[in-house]
Amino acid sequence: MLSTETKSIILSTVPVLEQHGEAITGRFYHILFSEHPELLNLFNQTNQRKGNQQTALANAVYAAAAHIDNLSVILPVVQRISEKHRALGVKPDQYAIVGETLLKAIQEVLGDAATPEIIDAWAQAYNVIADVFISVEHELYREAAEQPGGWRGFREFVVRDKVKESEAITSFYLEPADGKAIASYIPGQYLTLLVQVPGQPYLQRRHYSLSDAPGKPYYRISVKREAGVNGLPDGIVSTYLHDTVQVGDRLQASAPAGDFKLDTTNERPIVLLSGGVGMTPLVSMAQTLAEHGDTRPIVYIHAAIEGSVHAFDRRLRELAKQPNFSYHVVYERPQGEDERHPHFTKSGFVDRDLIERLAPADATFYFCGPTPYMRAIYKTLHAMGIQEDRIRFEFFGPTSQLVD
Ligand code: FAD
């Protein structure tokens, strides 16, 4: 338990640390990687270069500290982060390293302003916060290992099939190399790959949503080839998967994870909104509902730049033959025959008018797509008065990027 005095030091210094947030986390990562270079294999180095990880860490620590009086408020965020940590293989002892390094960084950046009392208060608060994460992650490791077909850490899979879904997206069908059962998952969850890409100095870990319905003897992930634009390097793992990995090759994956899950505990209509490759978890949901013979109204609205990069269209057209499933396609810049697509609804973007026209107001809304799409849909659903518990989303980048 933290004393009232410690809590008040934390609450009064959160704004100061926030103000120096970037400097502190920049320094933090510098110290961390020079003292513990093995951690370069754990942290996503592309996110490091883009500065995403710095923002994510700073936001998580300050948000936790600001709620030090009542950490239960941030439990949903802890759950989301811990799911990722478990999937990536974060270990309890790494929290101590991060804590020590963070305190060193705070001390260096704030200098004398960081008095021994302040450093001590932050050390105590960090331990309380770290314990919350460690205990949630302990439970997630246990669940992942103990469920039927489950496992701890990374397991070897063989690529059984590689199927092009569009000009940009290719599916990989993964079967366990040991031939044993695999853990089930809830549509919306993801698989995390651990890859040694030739020419890259560190191991790479990336999450990929499971794009098929569960209950198959394989996992299917569907990956967009992230080509570098404007002189930026190509995406490391996605281009490796597309260009190099072939049927018969082996990949390491941790057990399915994630808190973005299809909820079938009520009878509400379901609206699935996807942009680009963000369709992967939603296609899994649509497919699962169909396989279960679910008869509630299901509205699927997909946004793509144009038809050539629109994946899973054939599957969704099939699903749209069911009377309860409606499928709508929005192309930002339709080309050639795109406007003749039988489910083509409009060109441009998904907007409030369209959602209000197509979606039952009492539905649960699930969405996933690129950052501007996520921001627009989130704002729109709020403006429409949809309650928070009926808004569910997955984001393929750090959540901090969604916050204005
Ligand atoms: P990275 O090497 O990570 O690069 C990413 C992008 O950054 C590239 O476009 C690259 O050009 C650019 N970049 C590189 N260096 C810089 C720099 N210095 N400055 C600015 N930009 C730079 N992806 C899918 O395709 N399908 C999925 O189903 C899917 N599901 C996901 C589920 C979750 C929960 C999450 C978190 C992510 C998911 N992703 C999915 C995204 C996926 O994890 C990877 O982020 C994606 O494949 C890119 O990884 P990469 O290694 O190819 O690219």
UniProtKB/TrEMBL annotation:
Its cofactor is FAD; heme b. Consists of two distinct domains; an N-terminal heme-containing oxygen-binding domain and a C-terminal reductase domain with binding sites for FAD and NAD(P)H. The lineage of its organism: Bacteria, Bacillati, Bacillota, Bacilli, Bacillales. One of its GO terms (molecular function) is metal ion binding. It catalyses: 2 nitric oxide + NADPH + 2 O2 = 2 nitrate + NADP(+) + H(+); 2 nitric oxide + NADH + 2 O2 = 2 nitrate + NAD(+) + H(+). Heme b binds at H85. Its EC number is 1.14.12.17. GO terms for biological process: cellular response to nitrosative stress; nitric oxide catabolic process; response to toxic substance. This is Flavohemoprotein. The active site is at Y95 (charge relay system), E137 (charge relay system). The record marks Y29 as: Involved in heme-bound ligand stabilization and O-O bond activation. Residues 152-263 form the FAD-binding FR-type domain. Pfam families: FAD_binding_6 (PF00970), Globin (PF00042), NAD_binding_1 (PF00175). InterPro entries: Cbr1-like_FAD-bd_dom, FAD-bd_FR_type, Flavoprot_Pyr_Nucl_cyt_Rdtase, FNR_nucleotide-bd, Globin, Globin-like_sf, Globin/Proto, Hmp. In the C-terminal section; belongs to the flavoprotein pyridine nucleotide cytochrome reductase family. Belongs to the globin family. Two-domain flavohemoproteins subfamily. Is involved in NO detoxification in an aerobic process, termed nitric oxide dioxygenase (NOD) reaction that utilizes O(2) and NAD(P)H to convert NO to nitrate, which protects the bacterium from various noxious nitrogen compounds. Therefore, plays a central role in the inducible response to nitrosative stress. The record marks K84, E394 as: Influences the redox potential of the prosthetic heme and FAD groups. NCBIfam families: PRK13289.1. Residues 149-404 are annotated as: Reductase. HAMAP family: Hmp. It comes from Alicyclobacillus sacchari. FAD binds at Y190, F395, F396, G397, P398. The gene is hmp. Binds 1 FAD per subunit. Keywords: Detoxification, Dioxygenase, FAD, Flavoprotein, Heme, Iron, Metal-binding, NAD, NADP, Oxidoreductase, Oxygen transport, Transport. Residues 1-138 form the Globin domain.
